[in-house]
Amino acid sequence: MTTVDASNPHYVGDFGDERLAAVGADLLRALEEKRTVVVKRLGGTRAEEIRYGRFLKNENVTHQEILEVEGRRVGKCAKGRDVLAIQDTTEVNFSGHTGSKKGFGTVGNGEDIGLFLHPQLVLDAESGGMLGLAGCTIMNRRRHVKTPSNERHPEKRESRRWLEGMELVGRVLKDAACITMVADRESDIYEAYAKCPANVHLLHVPLRIVV
User: Domains (ranges, CATH) in the chain?
Assistant: First the structure.
């Protein structure tokens, strides 16, 4: 495995190949500068468009590694600070791209294709400045589950995302002075209190995040 400079502020992972690491860094830089997620616009030229497209399709490029790298970075930024970790679920709807998208289940209406993202966004509690993502749960409803949620084991329920996010925040931000987990009323479940890490405080509020 090749060695990659992880101190690069645009480093998103090495993916076992220094060339992939370089493309990943360039792609993040382009995302910051051009403020779009459209690969054609990010590339600017046909060659760069193809380069980014191949990177995103490469099986060695995983969201798990990207999130782990971001989590380590945010953990360092949070050291010694009082931080807020905000989690909520957002829906990504691909109803206008049904013909070109594959592998997606349905979203909230049970018909359109897409997926759900459940990120843990970290902010400095004093300044309100954004530090980054501690992590993110990705849910893809490719199978219809007939058993009611209250009859399923907790590990089989989608509500586990609140618990996983809480536990992940406790690990990633372990060096923070104080961690306050903020979420809406949907996360107000018994397991959240029963399994809350000792270094995490819970705060449930009516929450609507607009990005």
Answer: 1-61 (no CATH), 67-204 (3.90.350.10)
